[in-house]
């Protein structure tokens, strides 16, 4: 019994001690809480954060984000545009230097060749889009250094850099067909090729010595010509297929006539005429699509434009339309609008536009970062494509189009009836095209 009573007493003391300890802790916590309340009341409540400050902070953050976005857009626009306001499109996709650019004969594509072993077709209808899609045509085991279409667009001839042969592509998709000749016919560099499929059927190859050769589409050698120029720099077949022309060390362009049979077979090649007037070697020249006019550019720092529709069989000389000096920054290239109204000369990274009768119309400075490798007008003469670096640029020929409109207005004032209506239609087409292109030009 004594043990039981001891346990009960111990249990009672334990319970009473726990209650006393709990009461003590509650008292301490209550005093501490009351002291904090008193301190808080003595200091007063903290001032609330003004809503205006919160809004200002958010506004500054938003404004900064907008400014960053605006700055990025500005930098993007500057990289896409040009101070001239004439850059309609910048076509990017090649991974190595672009060596040549042309418009397809039907006017539907800009076509470029690059050292990246590809040819690209860029739809003209997509020039105003934010992105520029293209069709890539591979050049197997080599790369094309130039592009030359037959007048009807059915065949494209491209000289190969290493192979020293002309590779032929056919159809809208530019399917590679064969090389002409199958093996290099010369140890010298292949500087130019040409092709004709209409009134005459042949492929032309021109080498850096003095040799030009005409081939059948089966690879048969038809004719070998000697320019007697010490060295050749450029050669071309006229769009009509009637002429083969070459320039080089001497200050003239030599032109042969290709006489063909009813089936287009080459029967004879004979000297036709020469383009004269320069005082040093001619680097480059160009035909208009109708083969009536030519333009040349030489090391003497001048360009010249000619009317070649003459009776050369009666020793009649070609008519000089105009000539003028250009800024020679090396490796000049020349192009002539189809109507022979405007001449474009590219030398180094710059482009100059001239009235084909002589006066300079406009200059586009730093059109490319490096030297321009090729230059070509479209079928209206309203667009000018250039290649250089890894990009193709398409420019608006504003000065040339306005000059053409002025000439048409002068003609319209003298015309009557249907002739006046036809000229008015041409003026309307050029005016609307120019307005549309300038509206989409990329400003720096």
Description of the structure:
The chain starts with a helix and ends in a 5-residue tail after the last helix. Helix 3 runs antiparallel to helix 4. A hairpin with a 5-residue loop joins strand 22 (333-336) and strand 23. It is built from 4 helices and 28 strands. The protein has a 4-stranded antiparallel β-sheet. A 4-stranded antiparallel β-sheet has the order 2-3-4-5, with no helix packed on it. The protein is 25% helix and 36% strand. With 444 residues, it is α+β, with helices and mostly antiparallel strands.
Strand content: 35-45%
Helical content class: 10-25%
- Number-wise, the strands total 28
Shape: globular
Biggest sheet: strands side by side, in what order? Answer: 1-28-27-26
Give the C-alpha Rg. Answer: 38 Å
Please, how many helices? Answer: 4
Largest sheet: 4 strands, antiparallel
Outline the low-pLDDT stretches: 36-79
Task: Give the averaged pLDDT, no decimals.
Answer: 87
C-alpha termini separation: 109 Å
Q: Give the helix/strand class.
A: alpha+beta
């Amino acid at each position: 019994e004594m043990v039981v009573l001891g346990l009960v007493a111990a249990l009672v003391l334990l319970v009473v001690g726990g209650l006393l300890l709990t009461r003590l802790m509650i008292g301490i916590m209550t005093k501490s809480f009351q002291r904090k309340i008193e301190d808080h009341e003595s200091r007063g409540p903290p001032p609330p954060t003004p809503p205006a400050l919160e809004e200002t902070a958010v506004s500054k953050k938003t404004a900064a984000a907008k400014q960053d976005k605006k700055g990025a857009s500005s930098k993007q626009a500057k990289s896409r545009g040009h101070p001239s306001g004439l850059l309609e499109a910048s076509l990017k996709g090649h991974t190595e230097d672009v060596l040549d650019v042309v418009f397809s004969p039907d006017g539907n594509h800009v076509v470029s060749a690059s050292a990246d072993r590809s040819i690209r077709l860029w739809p003209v209808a997509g020039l105003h889009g934010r992105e520029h899609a293209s069709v890539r045509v591979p050049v197997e085991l080599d790369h094309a250094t130039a592009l030359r279409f037959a007048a009807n667009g059915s065949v494209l001839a491209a000289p190969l850099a290493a192979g020293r042969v002309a590779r032929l592509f056919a159809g809208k998709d530019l399917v590679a067909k064969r090389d002409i000749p199958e093996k290099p016919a010369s140890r010298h560099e292949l500087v130019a090729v040409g092709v004709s499929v209409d009134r005459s059927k042949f492929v032309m190859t021109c080498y850096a010595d003095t040799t030009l050769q005409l081939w059948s589409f089966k690879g048969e050698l038809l004719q070998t010509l000697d320019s007697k120029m010490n060295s050749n720099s450029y050669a071309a077949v006229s769009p009509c297929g009637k002429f083969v022309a070459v320039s080089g060390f001497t200050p003239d362009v030599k032109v042969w006539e290709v006489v063909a049979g009813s089936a287009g077979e080459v029967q004879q090649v004979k000297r036709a005429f020469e383009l004269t007037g320069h005082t040093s070697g001619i680097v480059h020249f160009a035909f208009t699509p109708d083969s009536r006019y030519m333009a040349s550019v030489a090391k003497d720092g001048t360009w010249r434009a000619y009317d070649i529709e003459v009776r050369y069989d009666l020793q009649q000389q070609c008519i000089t339309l105009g000539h003028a000096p250009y800024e020679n920054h090396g490796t000049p290239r020349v192009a002539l609008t189809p109507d022979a109204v405007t001449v474009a000369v590219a030398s180094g990274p710059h482009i100059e536009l001239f009235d084909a009768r002589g006066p300079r119309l406009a200059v586009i400075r730093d059109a490319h970062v490096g030297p321009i490798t090729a230059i070509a007008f479209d079928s209206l003469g309203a667009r000018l494509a250039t290649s250089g670096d890894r990009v193709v640029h398409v420019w608006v020929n504003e000065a040339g189009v306005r000059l053409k409109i002025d000439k048409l207005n002068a003609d319209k004032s003298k015309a009557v009836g249907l002739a006046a209506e036809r000229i008015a239609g041409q003026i309307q087409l050029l005016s609307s095209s120019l307005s549309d292109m300038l509206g989409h030009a990329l400003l720096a």
